[in-house]
Write a structure and sequence with these properties.
This protein is an alpha+beta fold. The chain is built from five helices and six strands. Strand 5 and strand 6 form a beta hairpin.
Length: about 170
């Protein structure tokens, strides 16, 4: 991730479709706020989080980002976040490939035991991806998320190191 990416990521985070599916930012983000966020993650020493850009190999375009945050070095777990911000690149396998690489990093380099995440029940595309990658529903907070038409469940999912299939030769999950 580079400071110069802030303008791109701000446009994603202000896109209503992205904001609808991403629980981390529910209100519009100013350029100043995005730049402050970038400075903070770029200064992070890796103690609590690890952030990565998702780029297209063919054209070096930034298409998304992923991170591990709330890393617990004693219990050996972290929370996962991922977004493919470029609408034209969604559904093309970028998230699956990036997460396969992230799992390898998390389990084999950081020596984590589990990764967990939260996803709104209306985000069917993400739920299908996470299930395909081996995540299991571990809990549900009923009517926890409010969006437009009403309340929705928040689904808690987890992936154990022992249940994670190794990445294929191409690095995709």
């Amino acid at each position: 991730m580079r400071q110069a990416d802030a303008a791109i990521t701000q446009s994603w985070r202000n896109d209503p479709v992205v904001r609808h599916n991403t629980l981390g930012f529910r209100f519009p983000i100013t350029q100043e706020r995005e730049e402050v966020w970038f400075e903070r993650i770029l200064r992070d020493t890796g103690q609590n989080r690890a952030d990565f850009a998702i780029e297209c190999v063919a054209d070096d375009a930034l298409v998304g980002m992923t991170h591990l945050c709330e890393i617990d070095w004693i219990a050996r777990h972290a929370r996962l976040g991922v977004v493919i911000g470029e609408a034209a690149r969604q559904g093309q396998g970028y998230a699956a490939e990036a997460l396969g690489l992230l799992f390898d990093y998390a389990f084999n380099i950081l020596n984590l035991r589990r990764i967990h995440l939260q996803v709104a029940s209306y985000n069917r595309r993400a739920l299908a991806l996470y299930a395909r990658l081996g995540f299991i529903e571990e809990g549900r907070l009923r009517e926890h998320v409010y969006l437009d038409d009403g309340y929705h469940d928040l689904i808690l999912m987890g992936l154990m190191r022992a249940d994670c299939a190794p990445p294929s030769a191409t690095g995709s999950a």
